[in-house]
């Protein structure tokens, strides 16, 4: 496993909702894993380092999570996350499968703001809010700007599972 990973719980209320629905199916693949802290771990793609402090750059991760509920009416796929600095914004994108079908072009799902203090272990945490381009991924249930779970970029991901 790569020595860098992205940890993300998506949105706690969304995950609770799925847990309450009879017949919900969830799958994790492509190298992603679930953690004991109710987060999904996406390992960094080969050769990926941390996001530069300034200027353009990006971090690609691997793996996917897939949720199906309501007999397939709710069908959310989030695959191969990508964190990218574009101008003064930091964006989180995924290859998505959503209510209207799948996309092979990454969808900007969230806008990120890096927290000012890094963790003792060198990990970095970003606060995340739903981007307007990501509203359709959750079927229009959440509005743009809705808080999502924080995203953590960590060294030595095995210590976080």
Please, what is the average pLDDT? Answer: 86
Give the number of helices: 1
State the secondary-structure class: mainly beta
Shape: globular
Q: For the record, give the distance between the C-alpha atoms at the N and C termini, rounded to a whole number.
A: 12 Å
Tally the structural domains.
1
The helical percent reads under 10%
Largest sheet: 12 strands, antiparallel
Q: Would you identify the regions where 5 or more consecutive residues have pLDDT less than 50?
A: none
Number of E strands: 12
What is the string of helix and strand elements?
Answer: EHEEEEEEEEEEE
Strand percentage, roughly? over 45%
CA-atom Rg in angstroms: 15 Å
Please tag this protein with its features.
161 residues; mainly beta; single chain; globular
SSE blueprint and pairings:
Elements: E1 4-8, H1 12-20, E2 25-29, E3 33-34, E4 40-43, E5 57-60, E6 64-69, E7 74-86, E8 89-98, E9 101-102, E10 107-114, E11 124-130, E12 147-155
Antiparallel strand pairs: 1-4, 1-12, 2-6, 3-4, 5-7, 6-7, 7-8, 8-9, 8-10, 10-11, 11-12
């Amino acid at each position: 496993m790569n020595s860098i990973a992205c940890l993300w719980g998506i949105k706690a209320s969304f995950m609770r909702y799925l847990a309450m629905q009879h017949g919900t199916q969830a799958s994790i693949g492509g190298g992603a894993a679930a953690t004991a802290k109710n987060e999904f771990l996406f390992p960094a793609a080969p050769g990926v380092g941390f996001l530069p402090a300034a200027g353009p750059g990006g971090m690609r991760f691997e793996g996917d999570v897939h949720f199906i509920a309501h007999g397939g009416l709710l069908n959310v796929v989030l695959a191969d996350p990508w964190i990218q600095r574009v101008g003064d914004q930091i964006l989180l994108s995924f290859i998505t499968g959503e209510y209207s079908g799948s996309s092979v072009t990454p969808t900007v799902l969230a806008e990120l703001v890096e927290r000012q203090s890094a963790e003792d272990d060198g990990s970095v945490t970003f606060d995340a809010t739903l981007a307007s381009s990501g509203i359709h991924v959750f079927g229009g249930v959440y509005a743009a700007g809705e808080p999502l779970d924080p995203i953590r970029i960590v060294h030595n991901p095995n210590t976080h599972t």
